[in-house]
Specification:
globular; Gyrase A, domain 2; transferase; aminotransferase; 19 strands; alpha+beta; transaminase activity; Elongation Factor Tu (Ef-tu), domain 3; Aminomethyltransferase
């Protein structure tokens, strides 16, 4: 990978967990590395990082994201709980649709980002990040205590498979009678997929900027796990010219090109959604004095008074050595430190380097900057996000 830092991939404990698809990754030549407490494929022997990245941009990539945590939140006050711990508006979210949101602490800082799906007025499905498992569960359980028995919060394990790329629908349609052309980005369905016996939760979603689907496949027993393995292997074996398994390396560079955040890098508990250029996550219905979500006072103040936010998340491009997280950013004359890099990588799609950064708002898009790399100030430029336009399937 172009960014396989020790911090990201090699800091997990020795007793690593395995996803239901682990056996298939090993058989396919996956280079297995520790990631968020799991043993995950970062690359496969037959592919370089750039090959993998470009394959997803042109065909279909399979990403095992089973390490992420799945939640079921139900009960009379399930909506009230979610609207306290996130700024989402569940009243306006249509049934069987999902939305990106963020878990918020009392100061408006981001505990984690998440995807919330509405299955009923009192039934919600949520997916959160693998690296935040313990603290997310502790946070949600504590917040749920105020609602007593009117909220039920359960987590569950299973196979989570992301099928990403411009030909994702063409591939997946071969395995279901459901008309996938009628399911748009953000919508979900419960479907049957051959050869899986159990019903699968399908979401038209993903974190690559490409069209695609995320499948939650039950894997609570040996038979279900075998079904998920058979499905994964069938996709690859039957359509090798269309689909390949893809590891963590390309998943990271794809989301970076798409301008998407990674928790622990662009998002932390010290950063509010407004500071992270995610004000769009707070809809108008949640912007009044009675909003009631954690940190609402601070977040709404920042929305209403732009002078309260001095730095913003923005893009940076450069040539030469690639910027990495925590590298300092200076004004073009080198006299003033104005920000820092959060994620950086060479871009397989564009060439040159791309990075996300927090930079003083006084410095506009198009401004020349300097990035401190290996003790030298290197040329860079502020640019808008995303670097590569998303290719999402919308009506």
């Amino acid at each position: 990978m172009l960014r396989t830092s020790a911090k990201r991939f090699y800091s997990a404990p020795a007793n690593l967990l395995k996803t239901p698809l682990h056996e298939a990754h090993v058989a396919l030549g996956g280079k297995m590395v520790p990631y968020a407490g799991f043993e995950m494929p970062v690359l496969y022997n037959s592919q370089s990082h750039i090959d993998s990245h470009n394959w997803v941009r042109s065909k279909v990539g399979l990403f095992d994201v089973s390490h992420m945590l799945q939640h079921k939140i139900t009960g009379k006050d399930a909506k009230s709980l979610l609207q306290k711990i996130t700024p989402i508006d569940l009243n306006s979210l249509p049934m069987n649709e999902s939305s990106l949101s963020v878990l918020l602490n009392e100061n408006g800082g981001i505990i984690d980002d998440c995807i919330i799906t509405k299955h009923g007025e009192d039934s919600f499905y949520m997916v959160t990040n693998a690296g935040c498992r313990a603290k997310d569960v502790e946070f949600i359980k504590k917040e749920a205590e105020a609602f007593g028995s009117s909220v039920n919060h359960n987590t569950f394990e299973g196979t989570l498979l992301a099928i990403q790329g411009p030909k994702a629908q063409e591939l997946l349609q071969k395995f279901t009678n459901e008309d996938l052309s009628k399911i748009y980005f953000g919508q979900t369905r419960f479907v049957k997929l051959s050869p899986i016996g159990a019903t699968v939760h399908l979401a038209r979603s993903g974190y690559t900027g490409e069209d695609g689907f995320e499948l939650s496949i039950p894997s609570s027993n040996a038979a279900e796990t075998k079904d998920s393995l058979n499905f994964f292997q069938s996709l690859i074996a039957e359509y090798p010219d269309l689909v390949k398994p893809i590891g963590l390396a390309a998943r990271d560079s794809l989301r970076l090109e798409a301008g998407m955040c990674l928790y622990g890098y662009e998002l932390t508990e010290q950063i509010t959604p407004v500071e992270a250029s995610l004000s769009w996550l707070i809809p108008k219905a949640r912007r009044d004095a009675n909003a009631g979500f954690n940190g609402a006072s601070k977040i709404l103040s920042q929305i209403n008074d732009k002078s309260l936010v001095t730095h913003r998340r923005i893009g940076v491009v450069s040539k030469g050595p690639s910027p990495r997280e925590h590298f300092k950013i200076f004004s073009n004359d080198g006299s003033q430190e104005i920000g820092y890099i959060t994620s950086g990588s060479p871009s397989p799609t564009l060439g040159g380097n791309i990075a996300q950064a927090y930079i003083d708002k006084k410095f506009k898009i198009g401004s020349d900057i300097k990035i401190e790399i290996r003790g030298k100030l290197r040329d860079g430029k502020i640019t808008k996000l995303p670097f590569v336009a998303s290719n999402l399937y919308k009506p």
